[in-house]
């Protein structure tokens, strides 16, 4: 049987993007087969290129978010550079931008303006707080939005709130932008019209805060910060093992507690002990509950602890660091690693988590060098050799 093509093959995306939210959204589109043209500044490009040099001299954020794209470097403050973008958009299916609030509108690259000119275009505006309201013009970086959305208030230990270790607000906005584009393309397939898509980092992350938000609004009290523990379930935490590892386990109901007591703790009588027989009792006596589990697991190495928990049907996991994630046996067994080309050679990268059995594998194209495709794209929009030379001479293209 012939393999199905990637679902977005034949679609063209133009993105005036930077940092994480828009680039991560358009990378999803590229992985699914879309052609993505990334418009960058002539003076250094997407500023995420300069975040670090961890990926063999390249920035880890940039490598993660920008594979499979074509890079054109233009000065959009010059009318000639802006005209190139307008020509590219005229032939595009999707446009995405996450410039500072108001900047796209000043350039005529906001979703409303572009969709009025190109009715089939799907155009995405990604902002920190939305286009209206008292926060519309505030600077919005990931950590700031994590704080405004309350994520930091529920993350950490009782004495110390902390931000998430990944750019959660950026990722939330990116994934809603990605799904918003797909939804708008489906609608275009039935109506023939594209239309604007608006994404706010605050609103995206506020949606992800659903459980603690509803808990607080309806119960009146926010969930406590409990580190790796769970605010309303016990035992649910990480426990040290004899070899220096840490094993997490979660007991979801009283039947599981009885199995844990008998088969792992070696104290079957705890299954009926009023101080720990129910989840409410275990939470009320959390210190005693955790001490019982910790004592049992501290006598075992991590492999043995995991084996016993698995045999007892208790949900469990290892507390892995990032080096261990890179060598995770499950990812290896499922052959999730690929090589992606860059200007410094190939780098390992994970296949995207959307798997389409029976279809072509995700297109994990190269990470572009700054302006790598400038000349080819200028020619594609009808520029002559003399015009291209003038743009380069004047610093409008690079």
Question: TL;DR?
Answer:
The chain has 398 residues and is α/β, with parallel strands linked by helices. Helices cover 39% and strands 15% of the residues. It is built from 17 helices and 13 strands.
Structural summary, described in words:
- With 398 residues, this protein is α/β, with parallel strands linked by helices.
- It has 17 helices and 13 strands.
- Strands 3-2-1-4-5-8 form a six-stranded parallel beta sheet, sandwiched between helices. The chain has a three-stranded antiparallel beta sheet with strand order 9-10-11, with helices on one face. Strands 6-7 form a two-stranded antiparallel ribbon.
- Strand 6 and strand 7 form a beta hairpin.
- The radius of gyration is 26 Å and the shape is elongated.
- The two termini are 45 Å apart.
């Amino acid at each position: 049987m012939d393999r199905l093509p990637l679902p977005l093959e034949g679609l063209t995306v133009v993105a005036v993007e930077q940092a994480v939210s828009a680039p991560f959204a358009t990378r999803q589109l590229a992985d699914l087969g879309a052609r993505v043209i990334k418009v960058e500044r002539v003076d250094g490009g997407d500023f995420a290129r300069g975040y670090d040099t961890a990926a063999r001299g390249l920035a880890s954020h940039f490598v993660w978010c920008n594979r499979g794209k074509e890079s054109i470097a233009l000065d959009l403050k010059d009318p000639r550079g802006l005209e190139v973008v307008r020509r590219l958009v005229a032939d595009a299916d999707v446009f995405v931008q996450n410039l500072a609030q108001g900047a796209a509108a000043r350039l005529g690259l906001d979703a409303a303006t572009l969709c009025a000119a190109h009715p089939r275009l799907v155009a995405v505006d990604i902002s920190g707080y939305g286009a209206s309201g008292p926060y519309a013009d505030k600077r919005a970086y990931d950590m700031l939005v994590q704080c405004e959305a309350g994520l930091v208030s529920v993350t950490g230990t009782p004495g110390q709130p902390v931000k998430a270790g990944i750019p959660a607000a950026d990722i939330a906005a990116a994934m809603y932008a990605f799904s918003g584009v797909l939804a708008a393309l489906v609608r275009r397939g039935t109506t023939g019209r594209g239309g604007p898509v608006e994404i706010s980092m605050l609103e995206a992350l506020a949606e992800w805060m659903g459980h603690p938000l509803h808990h607080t609004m309806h119960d009146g009290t926010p969930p406590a910060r409990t580190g790796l523990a769970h605010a309303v379930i016990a035992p649910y935490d990480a426990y040290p093992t004899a070899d220096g590892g840490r094993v997490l386990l979660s007991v979801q109901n009283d039947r599981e507690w009885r199995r844990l007591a008998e088969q792992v703790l070696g104290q079957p009588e705890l299954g009926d002990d009023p101080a720990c027989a129910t989840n409410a009792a275990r939470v009320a006596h959390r210190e005693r509950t955790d001490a019982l589990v910790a004592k049992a697991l501290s006598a075992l190495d991590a492999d043995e602890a995991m084996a016993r928990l698995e045999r007892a049907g208790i949900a469990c996991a290892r507390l892995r660091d990032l080096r261990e994630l890179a060598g995770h046996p499950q990812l290896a067994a499922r052959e999730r690693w690929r090589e992606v080309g860059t200007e410094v050679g190939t780098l390992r990268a994970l296949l995207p988590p959307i798997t389409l059995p029976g279809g072509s594998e995700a297109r994990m194209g190269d990470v572009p060098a700054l302006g790598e495709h400038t000349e080819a794209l200028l020619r594609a929009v009808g520029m002559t050799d003399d015009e291209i030379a003038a743009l380069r001479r004047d610093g409008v293209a690079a």
